[in-house]
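Homework help board

Subject: predicted structure for assignment chain

Our instructor gave us this sequence and asked us to write out the predicted structure in token form, then describe one feature. I got the tokens but I'm not sure how to describe them. Can anyone check?
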Amino acid sequence: MKRIKKIIIVGLFLAIGSSFLAFKTDYFEVAKQMEIYTTLFKELNMYYIDEINPAKLTDNAINKMLDDLDPYTKFYDEQGVEEVKINSSGEYSGIGAQSKYYDNKLVIIEMYEGFSAEKAGLKVGDEIIKIDDVFIEDFNNKQVATLLKGSPNSTVDLVVKRQDKTLEFKVKREKITVDPVPHHQMITDEIGYIAFNRFNSKSSSSVKNAFVDLKTQGMNKLIFDLRGNPGGLLNEAINIVNLFIPKNEVVVTTKAKIKKWSETYKTKKEPIDLEIPIVVLINGKSASASEIVAGSLQDLDRAVILGQRSFGKGLVQRYRNLTYGTKLKLTISKYYTPSGRNIQELDYTNRDGSEIPKFSDSKRNEFKTKNGRIVYDGGGIEPDVKIETPQRTEATKALYNSDAIFNYASNYYYQNSTIDKPDKFVINDSDYNSFIEYIKSENTNFITLSEKNFEIAFKTSQKENFSNSINGSYQKLIQELKDQKIENLKANKEEIKVHISDEILNRYYFKKGEYQNHIVFNQSINEAIKVLENQEQYNQILK
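My token output:
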């Protein structure tokens, strides 16, 4: 107990106190608040009628405090620190499968081709119900997935549920390397394609290796796909930009309240190609380091940016070591692209409760690229060539937050032993209608906020003994909401078909199959090909 108290006091002091001191806040106020928390915690521990969980209480207190800042400032316990290391290095020892914990279930959501899990016979969609001697339902913690990791060459016994069958597997753990370039290939005799989905310590070398490989195959034009890439290591973003721009060029500048943390980052190496035409693909999930790459190449007129406006994360985080192996990741600065713009979208400084204003709602400031083209700050990177997509309805957002598409794909897989190859496979209207019938008839967690709120209200009426008189009206209203929910999906039908296609292809051809399919059928890639095949248009955009 004393050790836990020490972690709490020292950890909170470092997380709060040192930051406040750095910003010249009154030390007395910091000490006062720390003493209040310490004495409160002591009283709870000594006199509360039931046993308390010190770690849980403190974790809740820390997370609530940080939630009022921004979503990027986070506290990591010892286990969380290990996850940070894995994400940064791109290496860990495990079974070669990605799992997700939700609703007290641990489900395999992606298999890595050629690794132990695949060789042992595990499948996407398998629900792991037991790891060695640990039953998932008893563990009741999202950290249960860490039990799949361990020393290389050790084995783990798994019991899984698959389509109402219970199966047992013995899987060998091995060193897993997560490639930040999941796919690259030649699209035409001249145009190469590189998919890039994460920034870890291997990112720039992986991109370079893929680029060199494509050059040997005759590539003289490149499509660089940053869609869905959430970002990561800043230095890797700089190294990737450096592949295509000269040495000693400014890539990004950071400005912090602590002067020593304000830096200007320049390229340090000779590039590998200064001439090759490049189209960079972005969308609303391209964030942080992805936006540094796209924004820098845009500001330096080195690439055409194509797609949808990026996420808009112009903030930089740094890890600070705390006691007992814990860490604090906190926002320490804003970054600025070579033209001087910061593309942060959400204004966390002026938030009002849950309402967070957007910089793009006010006037966005103009900046100029190296060639004098006008670009804007606030609200992400605006593409040079926009691919318009229908706005997502609330029903579509609820669908994507559910497991409906995932479960439908699993059922599809076990009902169809084979499908067309990735470059031929399409979800047609008949398949889409089958999916709609599935979500109508199956009990999924595809529920809109309206449905949730009406359900809460009805349960309240039951407690107050009002439900009998309104039950019929309630059931009718809920059915009307469900019907409208399905109707509203039509606005995003084509996008939903792509999501269904990706999930199904992943079952048969792994992640690689999704990219092979997109190269043939994806609108953004097809538009990028047109831009690269029209040299006059490409040059005109960059002027």
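Reply (TA_rk): Your tokens look well-formed. For the description, you could write something like this. Residues 394-521 form one domain. That's the kind of observation they're looking for.
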